[in-house]
Write a structure and sequence with these properties.
This protein has about 230 residues and is mainly β. About 5% of the residues lie in helices and about 45% in strands.
């Protein structure tokens, strides 16, 4: 009911597609993606759906859900601007967009660390040549979880966290555990964040959902995990 109430208020017609809403840390605003007006753009509204406004300045053909920084001052979104998906940072006070990644790879589903120092994301960086029987080698890559310093942090290189596949990632509320899904199998995994970028190989399967098509349909909230489960 809530979804229908606020989406009908901000969309120009029933055909508009609204996706990925997330409340701001203080609970007063909601950010989401809508194709109202004919193209994917970030929108921000009050928590009850009123006063919706579009955020222009990013000419994207496709876009993942925007995610709030812990201090509520900025958003990060994955958007396809020049072919590949890349990470883009929006400073809300100025309306200024900053592109964070320039690799010739797709980078998607960003999420902030609890302390605001890191941004987790999925990347196909490090593409390899794959031999296909009866044909020439083709370039392909497996999704892995990476992290990079958030804007304003001291410079550091992006770090690859997984080697056995990874996609959507979120920290626990205390920042001690990283939960993540994998692109080629159902389930939700967990590992300690204390090892930094080191892949310790001790990932723990904590839930057999979500299914592969729902790899981003879960969330950390307080001391609980909310996961979409398919009855079939």
């Amino acid at each position: 009911r809530y979804w229908r109430d606020w989406s009908s208020d901000v969309c120009s017609s029933d055909l508009d597609h609204v996706s990925g809403p997330q409340f701001s840390p203080d609970g007063t605003r909601v950010a989401y993606v809508s194709d109202a007006g004919g193209k994917a753009r970030v929108w921000i509204a009050a928590a009850d759906g009123t006063g919706a406004r579009v955020v222009d300045g990013l000419a994207a053909t496709r876009m993942d859900a925007p995610r709030w920084s812990p201090d509520g001052r900025s958003l990060v979104v994955a958007a396809a601007v020049e072919g590949y998906y890349g990470l883009h940072h929006l400073q809300l006070a100025t309306g200024r967009w900053q592109r964070l990644t320039t690799d010739e790879a797709d980078e998607r589903v960003p999420a902030w660390s609890q302390d605001g120092r890191w941004i987790y994301y999925a990347s196909t960086r490090g593409a390899v040549l794959i031999e296909i029987a009866g044909g020439p080698p083709v370039r392909g890559a497996r999704w892995q979880v990476w992290r990079r310093p958030a804007p304003g942090q001291s410079r550091a290189e992006p770090e690859q966290l997984t080697t056995e596949g990874g996609f959507a990632a979120q920290e626990s509320s205390d920042g001690a555990t990283l939960f993540f899904t994998r692109p080629d199998r159902p389930g939700l995994w967990a590992r300690s964040t204390q090892g930094g970028a080191k892949d310790t190989g001790d990932d723990l399967l904590v839930a057999r959902e979500p299914a592969v098509p729902d790899h981003s349909q879960w969330s950390v909230a307080g001391n609980a995990l909310y996961v979409v489960a398919r009855e079939d």
